[in-house]
């Protein structure tokens, strides 16, 4: 019987192929990943809404109506930070799903959750560090782009390689900085999905507010609900991209695909945490 093709091809990928593989990873784990993303997106809105309301940008008014530009900028930077934290937490789950997807060995959702749960304390610590890195870099503005792109592989590394938060961050910085390809791919994916999110969030919210009765509370509820749903899809997709990008970067930099193929030919079990072809760097 012919073996089915892996969700993540065992070779270096183009940017378009990375996006396709991320969508496929999301599709086969849709229920688990979307539920997790929904919970995190709802928690994020619960944290951000009071801050946005205080800054005069709660979503029911025009974007730049705040009289305090400094407060608006701070809230915006906190939003960028919470996104990074959410992606770090989701990245642990998508990292657990990506490894079997690469090896064509499906794993039940409960096993993925169990694997995520074993790494949850380390993931929480990593998410905290990610937040501490992203907030000041966002306030300064330009450093955020590099920081966001460079630390995106940490959560998948923490789960796949079974290392601690510090080692996972160091691994992400090392791999993503090779030719800055990892940084560029993560920023490209974020930009593309951000455009989709804005179109869904503002477009759907505006449409619903024109057909629903004029009521301040209802308007807020509709706005928050629409953004939570839009963020649910986008966060799940971006976390899948992080996991796929991590494994693909290991193929490109460490020869992971060659090492996995060799282990299979020799009939050896494949453990991605220790499977690497040392000295291989491909651009």
Could you characterize what this model shows?
By secondary structure, this protein is an all-alpha fold. It has one domain. The chain is 76% helix and 0% strand. Helix 3 (69-103) crosses helix 5, helix 5 (120-140) runs antiparallel to helix 6 (142-150) and helix 5 (120-140) crosses helix 8. The longest helix has 39 residues, at 216-254. It is globular.
Salient structural properties:
283 residues, mainly alpha
Estimated structural class? mainly alpha
Report the radius of gyration as a whole number of Å. Answer: 20 Å
Q: Enumerate the spans where pLDDT stays under 50 for 5 or more consecutive residues.
A: 60-66
> How many separate structural domains?
1
Identify the overall geometry. globular
In percent, how helical is the residue content?
over 70%
Distance between the termini: 35 Å
Main beta sheet strand tally, sense and closure:
none
The total beta strand count reads 0
Question: Averaged pLDDT, please?
Answer: 86
Percent range for β-strand residues? under 5%
Order of helices and strands: HHHHHHHHHHH
How many helices? Answer: 11
Short description:
With about 280 residues, this protein is mainly alpha-helical.
Secondary-structure blueprint:
Elements lengths: L14 H14 L1 H26 L13 H35 L5 H10 L1 H21 L1 H9 L3 H7 L4 H12 L4 H31 L4 H39 L1 H10 L18
Helix pairs in contact: 1-2, 1-10, 2-3, 2-10, 3-4, 3-5, 3-7, 3-10, 5-6, 5-8, 6-9, 7-8, 9-10
């Amino acid at each position: 019987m012919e073996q089915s093709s892996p969700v993540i091809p065992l070779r270096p990928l183009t940017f378009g192929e990375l996006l396709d593989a991320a969508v496929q990873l999301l599709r086969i784990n849709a229920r688990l990943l979307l539920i997790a993303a929904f919970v995190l997106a709802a928690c994020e809105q619960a944290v951000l809404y009071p801050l946005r309301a205080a800054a005069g940008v709660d979503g029911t008014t025009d974007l730049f109506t705040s009289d305090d530009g400094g407060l608006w900028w701070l809230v915006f930077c906190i939003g960028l930070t919470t996104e990074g934290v959410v992606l770090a937490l989701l990245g642990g789950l998508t990292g657990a799903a990506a490894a079997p997807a690469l090896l064509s060995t499906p794993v039940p959702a409960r096993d993925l959750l169990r694997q995520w749960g074993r790494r949850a304390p380390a993931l929480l610590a990593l998410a905290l560090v990610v937040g501490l890195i992203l907030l000041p870099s966002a306030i300064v503005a330009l450093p955020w782009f590099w920081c966001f792109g460079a630390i995106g592989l940490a959560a998948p590394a923490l789960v796949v390689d079974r290392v601690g938060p510090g080692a996972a961050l160091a691994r992400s910085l090392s791999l993503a900085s090779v030719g800055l390809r990892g940084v560029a791919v993560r920023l490209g994916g974020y930009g593309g999905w951000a455009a989709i999110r804005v179109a869904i969030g503002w477009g759907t919210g505006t449409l619903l507010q024109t057909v629903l009765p004029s009521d301040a509370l209802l308007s807020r509820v509709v706005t928050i609900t629409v953004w939570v749903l839009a963020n649910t899809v986008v966060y799940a997709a971006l976390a899948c991209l992080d996991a796929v990008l991590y494994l693909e970067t290991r193929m490109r930099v460490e020869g992971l695909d060659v090492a996995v193929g060799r282990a299979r030919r020799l009939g050896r079990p494949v453990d991605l945490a220790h499977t690497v072809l040392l000295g291989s760097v491909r651009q």
